[in-house]
Design goal:
Number of helices: 3
Distance between the termini: 35 Å
Strand content: 35-45%
Number of domains: 2
Radius of gyration: 18 Å
Oligomer: single chain
Structural class: alpha+beta
Order of helices and strands: HEEEHEEEEEEHEE
Number of strands: 11
Helix content: 10-25%
Length: 179
Amino acid sequence: MGLVGERLARALADVTPPVPDGATALGITGISGIARLRRWDVVVSADAPGLAGERARFVALEDGEILVDEETPSAAVASLAEAVERNLSPPYSAEGFHQGGDAWAVGVNSISIAVLPANVVGEAIEQSSYHGTSACTVDDVPSLAFPRLHEMGRRRGADYAARAARLDETRWLVRVEPL
């Protein structure tokens, strides 16, 4: 897997919510009374003739660009993206699962994208604000905060945690959680 594929895999790992492992009754739907975590915002089915493999991951940007790993041609996932966009507008991350023949099931999550300066060195940013105190790291090294991430975080509340994963030279996939 090349650099684009590695970046995409890291970025997508950050947007898929954790699922309880079911090792105990805690977290098991129907036993604990806690609803199952929703993994996808939208699930669609689509035919994708010529798309090889068992799984395809991609990110669709607002400008129509589709980012895929190097093993998957973007033209091959175009039919999956077309089916998704009947239900959800970009930007989004998607993961397709081969169902046999040309049939695919696609799980999709809405995402936020931030454009940061091209001179940012690193692949992952964590930035937070809690009771007026801010902290930021780039690849686990302390850094100055990013105004764009602060702006995105403040939309979720005064106290927030933002994680950003590099998609390309200037675009970052961002997940913000209120604290």
